[in-house]
Every structure is written in C-alpha cells, then in structure tokens.
Write a structure and sequence with these properties.
By secondary structure, the chain is α/β, with parallel strands linked by helices. The chain folds into 2 domains: about 120 residues, Response regulator (Rossmann fold), CATH 3.40.50.2300; about 90 residues, Arc Repressor Mutant, subunit A. Helix content is about 40%, strand content about 20%. It is built from 8 helices and 10 strands. The strands form 3 sheets. The chain has a 5-stranded parallel sheet, with helices on both faces. Strands 6-7-8 form a 3-stranded antiparallel sheet, with helices on one face. Strands 9-10 form a two-stranded antiparallel sheet. β9 and β10 form a beta hairpin. α4 packs parallel to α8 and α6 crosses α8.
Length: about 220
Amino acid sequence: MKPIALIDDDADIRQLLSQYMAKQGMEVVAFEDGEGFLNTAADQYCLAILDIGLPGIDGLDVCRRLRKDSNLPVIMLTAASDDLDRILGLELGADDYMGKPFNPRELLARVKALLRRSELNPTSQSAEDGISINNQLRTAHINHQPLTLTGAEFDLLCILAERQGDIVSKDVISQSLHGRSTSPFDRAIDTTVSRLRSKLTPFASDPIQNVRGKGYVLVIPCH
C-alpha cells in the first residue's frame, strides 16, 4: 500500500501518528508545512491527513491547491470549536475531518473507512443519457461529459446512484461516508450534497431532491 501523507506542524503529533500507524502496518511520510507536501506528487500517497493550522500556506489553501488536479482522499485536522473551518474544508474538497485533540484509534478507523471507499470493487457501466460510473477508475460522466468530483462527492454519487429514485437518509449516507451516524448539528452531509448538486445542476434541473426530514433522492437516470 502507498504511504499516508501527514501534514502537521506539531512535531509531537507527527511522531505519535507516525509510530501509531507504523504499528498498524501503515507507512507515514510526515511534513511540517504545506509547501513541502505540495512539492511532492500526490499520486504517490494513498491518503493525506492535513492540519488546517499550518504555518505559511494553511491547510485550507493546501486542500484548494491539491483539488485542482488530484482526488487524493483527505482527512482534515481542526480545532474542535472551529465549525467554520470544518465547513470550509469540506467545501474545498476534504473527505472527512477530526477535531483536535483526537483519539488515534478513531483517526485510524476513519483512515481505513476512506481507504475502503477508494478501493471499491471494479464495476463499469456506460450510459446513453444520464450518469455512468466507473468505480475502478473512480470517474463519473453525465450525458457523456466528465464530472470533476472530489473523493467524498464521488462516494456520495455512488451511494445515491445505487438507490437512484429512492430516498436515502442522512444516517445511511453518513454511515457509508464517515462510519458514524449524524448529529443534530452536523452539516457535513448537507455540505457534500450541496457541492455535488451544484456540479450536476448544469446538466439537469434539481438533480438531487431534498425530502424534508427523510433524506435525498437522485433523480437523474443511472446506467
């Protein structure tokens, strides 16, 4: 397996996670700033753990630059009270987040969940009109036009496409994406749905419908 990129200016966290992940059979390449990470090729890593509060280029800007040409799965580390930073991180393309301080075991669980989603069994379908998904290449097209999606957006599209035309609850989506149920004030799912909807809207009016109190419905045909 490719190594995990860990970008955090806290030397203690870099040491702790590097040692903990190594015990779990995972290699970690650690960076103390965003510049060092961005100067390497993203495709040499399987996942990035990215701290928002970095010196120089902060984690949000690192995520923004990364998403210009990479769908590398990203877990952002944020101060527990920084709701705005968490929302901004998700809007910029992060796949998950954890507040500091955190339990390394929970972080490991989220890393494994993200890696499982990025290693889906290969299935490929083609479309006349509508959405086609290639899970092996992690690509999606709508009406033969490629969609530029983040990892979380692609996974959400797969979840909705598997149940196309049916209501999918936020809890089902959260369990599939993050391995946990939603909380009353958790906006992560809403944010990811909003991002995906905005990318589908040029091709269809109201492509993902919000059924109040129940969940979401993908109304575009999937083939």
